[in-house]
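All the exercises in this workshop are built on plain-text protein records. A record pairs a protein's sequence with a compact description of its fold. Read left to right, the backbone structure tokens trace the chain's path through space. Once this layout is familiar, the rest of the handout is easier to follow. Here is such a record, shown just as it appears in the course material:
>
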Amino acid sequence: MVDIDAVRDWLGRLPGGSLVGQYVDDWDAFEKLDRPVVTLFGSYDTGKSSLLRRLLVDSGGDVPGWLTISARHETFEVNDAEVGGCIIRDTPGFAVGASDIRAQNNSRRAMAAVGLTDVGIAVLTPQLATAERDVLQKLFTQGWPVETMWFVISRFDEAGVDPEYDLAEYRELSDRKVRELRELFELDDRTPVFVVSQDPFQTAGPDTDLSRGTWDDFRGWDGMRDLADAFEAVSPSALPGWRHTAGQRYWTAVLDETVTELRRQLSDYTARAEVAASGVARRDVWESELDTLDRAAQASLDGLVEEVMRRSWEPSSGADELQAEIQRTLDEWFTKHEVRLQRLQQSIRKTKERERARPSWAGFASLVATLGAGEDASRPPGGPGGAAEHVGTVGTILIGMLKAANNAPGPIAGGKASSAKAAGGLERHIGIAEAALPLAVYLAKVVDEQGADRARLNQDKAAAEKRQQVVTECTQRTRDAWQPFVDDVREAIVAETRDQVDLDASLRQLVEQLQEAVAEGEGLFRAGTVPLLETEA
């Protein structure tokens, strides 16, 4: 027994936004129904739709247009029909382990409908449950009052014995299958089990325009009379107790499914947060390396220009010789330090290639793409709600939370353009000669202008100050020519780690909130008197 009010309060405080309104709306709509709700569920092609058609026709009702009979998977939504004093729901067949989205949605809708019902009817083929056994077992242990969980072994004319020729063997096989079913799910004698042949030998086939007389020849053995009597015996007087138990079953399932989904989201976002944190760490390391390289280049530049200038003022030096010396000295300086930058660039590129090859990167990249795509949270379509019907919105509200935290489309969307620009910059290579030539031309011009008075310039104080001014200006020009090399690498570092750095803080916060939400949800189970329901990983 869970504390329903506490569960609702917890749902209202989930990270990113409240889910409680969606669940309350679905529960309130179910609770207001003044007739018992009976839900048919099971794998597809067990005969749920043909069973409902038979019940409708036998009771004198019309077969609705949405009801189709086929060996294929035809039912995709939860639909209601009326038989006597009951509302009967036909559900999509669930497909255990299915990978396609439609089958997964069908399974989710079917499970959700079972959460909002007074009486559940598991419809099985004569082979009984196989792959779906664990799913059914989980449903059966969710607290059903006595005689509110029924079993129908359907299409029994296909079980292998023809009742037209050997009715005794047919009934013996029927009894044996009932015993097998009770043993399979450990059912006591109070659990109703019906064996039916709702459309013997496919007499009606896919038709829906039928009369009650269609199956008159088979009523002596098709088992439908016992099932119809059970429906007539469903009493509205038991409804208050059934609804109370259904409420516990529903909100327990809500809590179970939501905690399970939050655990999954926590695992996913923990991995994404680790990717983001690694990007922050790498940016710090790479920028530190770049700063170290830049400082080393700047330090080696100090005094270099002055030495070239000192040699250029020697009277014996010719203008062409001086320009060649200036060109050679600056070329060596640029070459030495640009090689170091290139090594850092290569290290950045290789590290990012290795990171993007890891499985964890795919999840982070998908998150970045989703945040930049402008996707809106939406409620899954079709049928009455329930735990499994709503937990899919947990992911979308978390995405909304991240968008709000990062003001998307801001850092994420804008980062793509910057990343592309910086990626181009990473490959950009300013030739050494291209960078050094303007400096060599400038120095040669200065040397040429002062060539006639070199001896005086070496002795005159004012001229010496002029020389120092030239040295300072030339050093600054060299730094200015060097700076684009450094800026390109820095921009590449920022661009390569932009998404990770932008999302780091919000992902860390989200992981903390998910951890708290999961812990509180698990605490709500421990506070009850029933154990935590088994959940799939």
Q: What stands out?
A: The chain is about 65% helix and 5% strand. The chain has a mean pLDDT of 80. The CA atoms of residues 186 and 264 lie 32 Å apart. The beta strands are 37-41, 79-83, 86-90, 119-124, 149-153, 193-195.
